[in-house]
């Protein structure tokens, strides 16, 4: 599933090539955690006070269930960051390390259910189709597809069943990226 990515350029014009690089690097974060909700990347050009030694800054904010990971290279004086692509590379490397740590902490700390799953109930199925809708705690309704049901359990689900859901932003709004039946 594609991670929603927002890019902000400060003190510089947007670059389609840099935006493509950012999307590629953000997509690679999914290798470490498939529950990323959003990624915001800020690339900031240096102030033009100096003729040499202007360092670019990159900041990555990754929203995940139970937290936000913030990584960047704002405080470094590494002259390799005179190249904005190097600043991005280093910021994404730091974000990846923090994301791995976050996943490790959640994996070790949670015993009875997976982190970031929201309680809900099966609201309805669309007749003759492989999808339906879940009402989450709080009343929000989200789409789910049979492929998002863990363990090939789609056929066993019934309206009213309690589930735990990982929610992510899809093309048409929020959707369930993982559905776990409770007690089944």
From TrEMBL:
Matching InterPro entries: CSD, CSP_DNA-bd, NA-bd_OB-fold, RHF-like, RHF/RaiA
A GO MF term: nucleic acid binding
Source organism, top-level taxon: Bacteria
Signal sequence region: none
GO cellular component: cytosol
Residue ranges of every copy of the CSD domain listed in the record: 117-181
Gene3D superfamilies: Nucleic acid-binding proteins (2.40.50.140), Ribosome hibernation promotion factor-like (3.30.160.100)
Protein name: HPF/RaiA family ribosome-associated protein
Species annotation: Neoroseomonas eburnea
